[in-house]
Amino acid sequence: MTDHQQLDERIGRITRTPFRSRFHLRDSDLDYIAARDMDTMKRHAEDFIATRLAPRNPPRDGKQTPWKGHPVFLAQHATATCCRTCLQSSHGIAAGRALTAAEQSEVVAVICRWIELELASAPARRSVPRPPTAASRRSQRTVRQPALF
């Protein structure tokens, strides 16, 4: 079994729960990823995990991962990598000690794989600009100034 298959099985098991199954990338998340790339998402995940999850006693454990604002945050909630309690119950990584480098890499791999799966299942994105809305058309109108003479 390949690494991707193992990750897919683990993610599938976790995301089948009613709570975790409701998380999906939003349009704003898809736009954010499209403006960057998966290498950037991986670096962000590595940074977030190292600073917010890896310490022995993370500050505000259980509340350290915002619910929105970055695709990695959403992925953390979807994959139960958002706090040490979820890491312990869903991934078997014990709380009360600092995460090893290998455990941090494992968590980042789960997060990145979930994002990849979400990107693959996202509806095709329009590459052409959307037609202007009524509000934007109104703001684009020019007001004719009356001739002075």
Automatic annotation (TrEMBL):
Pfam families: DUF4186
Location of region: Disordered: 125-149
UniProt-listed InterPro entries: DUF4186
Official protein name in the record: DUF4186 domain-containing protein
